[in-house]
Amino acid sequence: RSLSTTARKSLTVGLIPADGIGREVIPAARDAILAVQNELPPVSFVDLLAGWDTFTRTGTALPAETVKTLKQECDCALFGSVSSPSRKVAGYSSPIVALRKELDLYANIRPVRSVSADSSKPPTTDLIVVRENTECLYVKDEKLTTGEHGKEARAIRLITERASTRIGRIAFELAKARPRKLLTIIHKSNVLSVTDGLFRESVRAVPPASNGAFDEVTIEEQLVDSAVYRLFREPQIYDVMVAPNLYGDIISDAAAALVGSLGVIPSINAGDNFVMGEPVHGSAPDIAGKGIANPIASIRSAALMLRHLGYASPADKIDKAVNDTLAPGKVLTADLGGTSSTQEVTGHVMKLIQA
Ligand code: GGG
């Protein structure tokens, strides 16, 4: 599934590093795109602001100018990572959650694949988490009241047929394009029979409404708690997993543990007219500024974004260079047990792309 390349005479990429290590890894993603630019229409980049740091300096976490530029000038974007505070701060709202809504990037696609030192062996983990990106508890409709026994906090969880159907369709399309053609619907409808029940039913209703387009796809379903258990015990049973927003967020971070580090897991936020690459990891304040963050998730996010835009060959080149960097295990950042810096890993990947 990809946006069409046909009418594109140029490629303008918005760069939103945001906070923490986002500022160290988004330049690596930019370098990767530049390294394959001979296979792309003329590429340009626009630097854009968002994040907690932007909020502390300007009073807004997502400046209107950033959204306007993305909508009017950019074909796609790369977002780094954001450090939202865990407490409520007046006037602050997560810019990544807002961007996904503003641009209607309703599908968060997160492939998790292990790289084996022996390339003749199949990966032990090779799955895609497809996370609904616009609703569930992330509508952030929370309320604090005082009841008979003290404070009471409530949050609305929104699940709609429309959003569940469209994420279901994306998940079926991805599953259909893979060798195993297996889709697992993740839910907890034994407890949340109304909300998760609607999600499950809406995803299941996609094939009957698609004139046989997804007949080859096997559908399974799994309660979210047992899905996490089985993910750790037997990750090979999964192919494509589709989940409401919160479960998808948690499952994809958990799945990252199976392949060594969150630092290698890419994602795209995709809508019908725009795509934004984003490493799954957060802003990692503990290592920010030290030059040791893993750039692989961002580099892979650039490749995933290019692939979604229809540029499969440059995306393949970037992915191959990443895999050829990871497999020998010699040039790795500390999260993967190595001693290399962000720049050394980036430089190594670039060298392999250009080899
Ligand atoms: N790149 C993923 C990322 O930034 N993760 C942290 C995150 O999403 N936090 C939510 C927020 O800070 O608003």
Give an account of the 3D structure.
With 355 residues, this protein is of the alpha/beta class. It folds into two domains: 1-105 and 274-355, Isopropylmalate Dehydrogenase (3-Layer(aba) Sandwich); 126-258, 3-Layer(aba) Sandwich (Isopropylmalate Dehydrogenase). Helix content is 36%, strand content 21%. The chain has eleven helices and twelve strands. The protein has helices spanning 22-35, 52-58, 64-73, 95-102, 161-176, 195-204, 224-233, 245-256, 296-308, 312-326, 342-354, and strands at 11-18, 43-47, 76-81, 107-113, 126-132, 136-147, 150-158, 182-187, 218-223, 240-243, 268-270, 275-277. The strands form two sheets. Strands 2-1-3-12-11-4-5-10-8-9 form a ten-stranded mixed beta sheet, with helices on both faces. Strands 6-7 form a two-stranded antiparallel ribbon. Helix 1 crosses helix 9 (296-308) and helix 9 runs antiparallel to helix 10. The radius of gyration is 20 Å and the shape is globular. The structure holds glycylglycylglycine (GGG). Glycylglycylglycine (GGG) binds at residues 81-82, 84, 94, 96-97, 278-283. The site of glycylglycylglycine has 12 residues, from helix 4.
